[in-house]
């Protein structure tokens, strides 16, 4: 039996994103490209699965840009990230805008076994290049 690693997150990437935590919702800032492509990401997801009324998991959610769009589209979203400061910024933004998202400081490798079949769809966007 193979052992599941406890985390594949790169510490240097977590540090980098925590340093940028206050910039996630500046549409002209460091994450401008994510804001620009977010309507395309949401449209792609909606072309391939029903979002409204469904339970979704956003893995590596960062500051919650996609998570909030999915919630606005009617999904019940749980969002995971390992960058604590970034996740705090996501929570603050969602609360300030009346968006209900279940943000969790968690790694998918430890989260998934405890939540089998809990979600109707899973997203993992612009995240894989930041893990080993």
- Uncertain spans, ≥5 residues at pLDDT below 50? 1-5
Structural class: alpha/beta
Q: How many beta strands in the DSSP annotation?
A: 4
Helix amount: 25-40%
What is the average per-residue confidence, as pLDDT, rounded to a whole number?
Answer: 90
Gap between N and C termini, in Å?
Answer: 21 Å
Could you give the order of strands across the largest sheet? Answer: 3-2-1-4
What does this 3D model show about the protein?
By secondary structure, the protein is of the alpha/beta class. It is 39% helix and 14% strand. It contains 5 helices and 4 strands. A 4-stranded parallel sheet has the order 3-2-1-4, covered by helices on one side. Helix 2 crosses helix 3.
Short account of what is shown:
This protein is an alpha/beta fold and 132 residues long.
Descriptive labels:
132 residues, single chain, 14% strand, Rossmann fold, 5 helices, four-stranded parallel β-sheet
Q: What is the topological layout?
A:
Elements: H1 11-19, H2 32-48, E1 55-59, H3 65-72, E2 76-81, H4 84-96, E3 101-105, H5 108-111, E4 121-123
Helix pairs in contact: 2-3
């Amino acid at each position: 039996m193979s052992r599941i690693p406890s985390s594949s997150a790169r510490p240097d990437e977590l540090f980098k994103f925590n340093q940028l935590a206050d910039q996630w919702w500046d549409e002209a800032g460091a994450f401008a490209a994510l804001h620009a492509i977010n309507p395309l990401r949401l449209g792609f997801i909606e072309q391939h699965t029903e979002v409204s009324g469904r339970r979704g998991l956003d893995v590596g959610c960062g500051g919650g840009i996609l998570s909030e769009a999915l919630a606005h589209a009617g999904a019940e979203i749980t969002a995971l990230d390992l960058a604590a400061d970034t996740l705090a910024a996501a929570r603050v933004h969602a609360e300030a805008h009346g968006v209900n998202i279940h943000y969790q400081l968690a790694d998918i490798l430890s989260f998934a076994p405890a939540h089998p079949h809990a979600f109707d769809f899973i997203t993992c966007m612009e995240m894989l290049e930041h893990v080993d």
